[in-house]
Design brief:
By secondary structure, the chain is an alpha/beta fold. Helices cover 43% and strands 20% of the residues. Helix 4 crosses helix 11, helix 6 packs across helix 8 and helix 8 packs parallel to helix 9. It starts with a strand and ends in a 19-residue tail after the last helix. 51% of the residues are buried. The protein binds 5'-O-[(R)-(carboxyoxy)(hydroxy)phosphoryl]adenosine and zinc ion.
């Protein structure tokens, strides 16, 4: 089964071809440069970029996979959650392709797709569900921070999520206060490498709270007040690196501790993580260390598959069709607020 998958939920236009769980191509056109000028994603601009990029990206995905449109057996696209106008472009265009080719269409929940991206590995990358085991999955991106119990393939239950800012948003907004460009996450990661994570003691919100929820707006506010009271720190390059390392340490400690605690409580032997923030080297290292210490297997999504991509959409769509979940009618609509349950 060969699937053409499309992802346009935020600021990446992506198309992929997936055949029987194998990724034949995965083209991602990022709009980061465009939005950097505005310090964040501008929804209307994102939608217009998707319109401009859809055809070239889809054509390149077919060319990279060395297949013609006639060889496509099914079409999949992100149905939600995401920016309404951005979703609309990719979802409706993908439905049109399915209509023209008279092939089945599958709308996918973007976060559900993130849950399975850590199971993709090898060259060419493919989803190895023979290795699947129940796990706690951490999805951390610029818009979301979610902890999920994945009981079996296609069966999951959300345990907790952020009650305010997402972890990536906290990286981006505190980074902005330090004078870093959007998105600041990768830059904080880089500067933190030569900074002292113990230099400044920032709060670890909800670290000891009984719930599996997260909160990062208090940390952001605490950094804001700290910088208001110590403005001179920003004139010192080493102090900026120390601030980056200290902010990163606070975010990472909460993410790791709550993920491991959930895994132990739920009695699973495996932890997975995906989403843009999973590119963070400290998060990867600390998860690795904590999992080792607690006898848990760790599966981190490959960096290229952490950020938004259509390959993970195609993998999940293929799995759904394989398990007999019926294709959708072509009059289905986008679900911008589709919450993973
Ligand atoms: O998944 P993603 O590409 O987009 C969505 O938000 O859906 O994630 C982007 C987020 C941004 O907040 C960015 O700052 C963060 O992921 N990010 C990082 C790193 N790379 C990306 N945060 C910390 N360290 C990184 N290395
Ligand atoms: Zn995502």
């Amino acid at each position: 089964m060969t699937i053409l998958a499309i992802e346009t939920s935020c600021d990446e236009t992506s198309a992929a071809v997936v055949r029987d769980g194998k990724i034949l191509s995965n083209v991602v056109s990022s709009q980061i440069q465009l939005h950097a000028e505005y310090g964040g994603v501008v929804p209307e601009l994102a939608a217009r970029e998707h319109l401009k990029n859809f055809l070239p990206v889809a054509r390149t995905a077919l060319a990279d996979a060395k297949i013609s449109a006639e060889e496509i057996d099914a079409v999949a696209a992100t149905q939600g959650p995401g920016l309404p106008n951005a979703l609309l472009v990719g979802f409706k265009a993908a439905q049109a392709v399915a209509f023209a080719l008279e092939k089945p269409f599958v709308g996918v929940n973007h976060h559900e797709a993130h849950l399975y991206s850590p199971w993709i590995s090898g060259e060419p990358p493919s989803a190895d569900f023979s290795q699947f085991q129940p796990n706690i999955s951490l999805i951390v991106s610029g818009g979301h921070t979610i902890l999920v119990l994945v009981e079996s393939e296609l069966k999951h239950r959300v345990l907790g999520a952020t009650i305010d800012d997402a972890a990536g948003e906290c990286f981006d907004k505190t980074g902005k206060m330090l004078g870093l460009n959007y998105p600041a996450g990768p830059e904080i990661d880089r500067l933190a490498e030569t900074g002292n994570p113990k230099a400044f003691d920032f709060p670890r919100p909800l670290l000891h709270d009984a719930s599996d929820d997260f909160s990062f707006s208090g940390l952001k506010t605490s950094v804001r007040y700290f910088l208001r009271d110590h403005p001179d720190l920003l004139n010192d390059e080493q102090k900026i690196r120390d601030l980056c390392a200290s902010i990163q340490a606070a975010i990472v400690e909460v993410l790791v501790a709550k993920t491991i605690r959930a895994a132990k409580r739920e009695g699973v032997r495996c932890v997975t993580a995906s989403g843009g923030v999973t590119c963070n080297r400290s998060l990867r290292n600390e998860l690795e260390r904590a999992c080792k210490k607690n006898g848990l297997e760790l599966r981190l999504a490959a960096k290229l598959l952490c950020t938004d991509n259509a390959a993970m959409i195609g993998i999940l769509a293929g799995q759904k069709l394989k398990q007999g979940i019926p294709a959708q009618d072509l009059d289905e609509e986008i679900k911008p607020g589709w919450v993973l349950a």
